[in-house]
Amino acid sequence: MADKITTDNSLVGLAGEGTGNYRAAVFPGKYLQGPGILALAGNAAAELGGKSLLVGGKKALAESYAQIKNALEEKGIIHETFPFGGESTEKEIEAVAGQARKSGAEMIIGIGGGKAIDTAKAAACQAGVRVMIIPTVASTDAPTSTISVIHDEAGRFLKYYRAGRNPDAVIVDTRILARAPSRFLCAGTGGALAVSYEAEASAKAGALNMAGGLPFGAVTGWAVLGRELIFKYAGMAKFSADRNLVTPALESVVEVNLLLSGIGFESGGLAAAHGVYHGFRSAVPGLKCLHGEVVAFGALVQLILENREEAEIRPVIDLYENLNLPSSLDQLGLADPGPELLQEVARHACEAGTTKNMPFAVDSSMMLEAILFADAFSRA
């Protein structure tokens, strides 16, 4: 199982040796979603091996371990657990991979949020075993992709790791996701909305995706479909999550956050919205926001860079207000950032490889003006 690591703060370096003369896409091996679907985890696991290593944090395991244990035992699958340390570091990944080898596991089952999932994917690649993902929040599109974000011990971004293939199975129990704080669902929705605009921009630019080729029209279409579903159902999905209810609206938004967005960013492409995310994370490492919250603000900046009409931008701001997503700097925790800090944010944002996927060149002056405009227009 090949892997590729980049220390760049972008994902462009993961596109491989593509030439742009063909189209390419990658997908998870199996994706199951629904309330109580965890009961079928044993069926999916049985297709991957007879012995497994479960990796997850205390909270994630407390939420789902009993169901997973029963599902695995029904199929005669031997398993042991490995407590996740909280950060997707190289040390943690090596520890999980080492335990998988030591125990003779044929698969690693990653349970929890983005960091636990990323650790499981990278460790499975290093150990040369299969991987199944069971997310307990819908805050990122990590469950379906090959990409793992690697941090240092302090939680700072270090680099990206790309496994040789996507997860073999993804089991999404919406009953569990509905019990998580709605902030996670909304953050995932903000990230998915950004991907819908980024995939469009990447397609217009003829940029290579992370599969090393040009995106298929169907993938770009799925990303745009995700946007349509978000505007239709995100408010009701948040209402459902606030009351721990599984509704069709919640199911639709979870599908967008995890599946459509995952395929959209990896087989479609990323652009300026994620560049803005990298700008803020590089210049303000202590920013107290979830990934999708920062990317959501980046999406607003990208729309301004693209000169989208006011009639298209206003509904985005209204959506953010409904979902408690940031549309201004003070909502990002930067009430008075100062010009020098914002210039640094803009510089890092333009240096991010994803920003180069825009269909036109973006320099730091343009980026700074767009950030300032997004902030002022939202507050006005």
Description:
The chain has 13 helices and 9 strands. Strands 2-9-6-5-3-4 form a 6-stranded parallel β-sheet, sandwiched between helices. A 3-stranded antiparallel β-sheet has the order 1-8-7. The chain starts with a strand and ends with a helix. With 380 residues, it is α/β, with parallel strands linked by helices. Mean pLDDT is 92; it is low at 1-10.
Q: How would you briefly describe this protein structure?
A:
The chain is of the alpha/beta class. It has 13 helices and nine strands. The protein has two domains: 4-178, Rossmann fold (3-Layer(aba) Sandwich), CATH 3.40.50.1970; 182-379, Dehydroquinate synthase-like - alpha domain (Dehydroquinate synthase-like, alpha domain), CATH 1.20.1090.10.
Keywords:
single chain; 380 residues; alpha/beta; Rossmann fold; Dehydroquinate synthase-like, alpha domain; 2 domains; six-stranded parallel β-sheet; three-stranded antiparallel β-sheet; 12% strand
